[in-house]
Each structure stands twice: as C-alpha cells, then as structure tokens.
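User: tokens in, sequence out, please.
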C-alpha cells in the first residue's frame, strides 16, 4: 500500500477535496464510512478537548499520541496541525519525525510567534520570514518518506496584509513546502488573488465564525484551492448536541427526546466491528 503522504497527494491531485476535522478515532471511522478522501486533526479541537484554549499549551507528545490513535483507526490520510513546530528549526526536525512515525500523512506549520492565537483572531505576532524558512528547511530535511506532506501556513494577511502573505508564501515554497495554507483571507476575491499569485497546491480554511467566507468545496476549487479544511465543524456540532442533551437530563430528568438523534447501539457496534472481535475471540479457543 502507498504511504499516507502519497495517498493525500493523490487525493488532492484527482479533484478538490474536503478535509474534515476528526476529534477521535471513532469519528475518523465515520469519515471513512462516508467516503471522505482525507481527515484532519485540529490543534484547536485537541486543545479544547483538554479544556484549554488554543494558545500553544499542549505538547508535541500530546499531539503525536492523539495523531497515532487516529491514524491507526483508518487508512484515510491524516493531516495534522503542528502549530509552530514546537520550537525552532532543530525542534521541527523531531516534530516531523514523530508525526511521520505515528502514521500521519503530513503536517502544517505556521509562522506565528508563541503564544500563538487562533488564526481568525486579532493580536497575532509573526516570526520573521527568514525564521519560518529555516523551520521549513529543517522539516523537509527531516522527512524520511519523500511523500510526507509539509504545508506552510502563513498568518500574514491579518498582520501585514495580502502582499506580505504572498511574499512569504513564495519564500516558503522555495524552502521546500509542498503546499500553502493562507490563513484568514476575508473574501472570495482575496482567495482568488492569492491563488493567482502563488502557484502551488493551496489549502482553504472553511472554519465557522471566522473571517473567511463559508464556501463550498467546489467553489474553493474554482478559486484555485485543491484542499478545503473543515477543522472544527463536527466537533462544534457534537459539543452543542452534548450540551443540549446534558441540559435535558438536568431539567427534564430524562433523555427521551434526544434518542432519535443518537447513534444506536447496533450502529455503534457495527462501526466498531464488534462482531469481528467476537468471532476472532472465539476462534482462539478452537
């Protein structure tokens, strides 16, 4: 079987693809059942699951451990948020090696300084373009699988403007990045302008409640983006459902109105392959 990185590249080269965020291994299995081409581990979702904001508090080990668990659950290529690389250039070498060992298809690195912030918030500060180039060179040098994907994210649009975002993207490509992720572009025209100026595979972030428009995968594709990220979409929907269900239990004393919205026991067991486990277990006893 081809490597995860190769499968991700093949997917985006066939047609523009959606990459939904999955927040655990079971959600990854659901994405696979539904026929998705790739999946994503969001640093924002992972941080929220730990009960902390997405400001760089989680460690490389926490990211990699979750990535490994998700990557084992399905053959879908898993793209991972690697924040700022968890340090400087030499740290980035180890970051790439550990994610690759975990079975991940690729990572994206961003050019923010710590403490980093959500890409759609104000108050961000960036490392120098030269500092980010050094990290990308280290990331490329650390790859053992040549198809492992390194995506460079730039947050320059919201800090210095579009021209600087384009300038940085070109420098990041020269440093060896396989694709570019321009964060927090604000209009379809901005997405189109960036795509015309930067000749590379491009990723659009279709997050909710942010600065960017919520377009379809097809629309982003027509603007020049071969990957469309939905980083917290399923996570936000699941959280609202959990909150409303817990509220019913507290106020009504039961969950009956929520049952039609639940995955049934049979559906859950089917997703888990429960019957296969039972069959194998019995076979070991002859």
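Assistant: Sequence out:
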């Amino acid at each position: 079987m081809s490597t995860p990185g190769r499968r991700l590249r093949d997917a985006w080269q066939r047609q523009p693809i959606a990459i939904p965020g999955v927040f655990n291994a079971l959600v990854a299995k659901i994405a696979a059942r539904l026929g998705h081409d790739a999946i994503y581990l969001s640093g924002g979702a992972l941080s929220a699951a730990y009960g902390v904001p997405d400001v760089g508090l989680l460690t490389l080990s926490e990211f990699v451990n979750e990535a490994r668990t998700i990557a084992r659950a399905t053959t879908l290529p898993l793209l991972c948020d690697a924040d700022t690389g968890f340090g400087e250039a030499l740290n980035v070498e180890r970051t790439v090696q550990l994610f690759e060992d975990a079975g991940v298809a690729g990572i994206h690195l961003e050019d923010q300084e710590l403490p980093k912030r959500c890409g759609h918030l104000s108050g961000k500060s960036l490392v120098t373009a030269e500092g980010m180039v050094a990290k990308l060179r280290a990331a490329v040098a650390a790859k053992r699988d040549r198809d492992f994907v390194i995506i460079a994210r730039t947050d320059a649009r919201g800090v210095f403007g579009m021209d600087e975002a384009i300038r940085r993207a070109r420098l990041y490509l020269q440093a060896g990045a396989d694709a570019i992720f321009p964060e927090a572009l604000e209009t379809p025209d901005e997405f189109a302008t960036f795509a015309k100026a930067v000749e590379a595979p491009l990723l659009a972030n279709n997050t909710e409640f942010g600065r960017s428009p919520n377009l379809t995968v097809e629309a982003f594709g027509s603007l020049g983006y071969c990957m469309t990220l939905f980083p917290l979409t399923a996570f936000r929907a699941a959280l609202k459902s959990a909150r409303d269900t817990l509220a019913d239990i507290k106020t009504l004393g039961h969950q009956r109105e929520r049952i039609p919205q639940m995955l049934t026991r049979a559906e859950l067991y089917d997703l888990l392959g429960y019957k296969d486990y039972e069959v194998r277990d019995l076979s070991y006893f002859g």
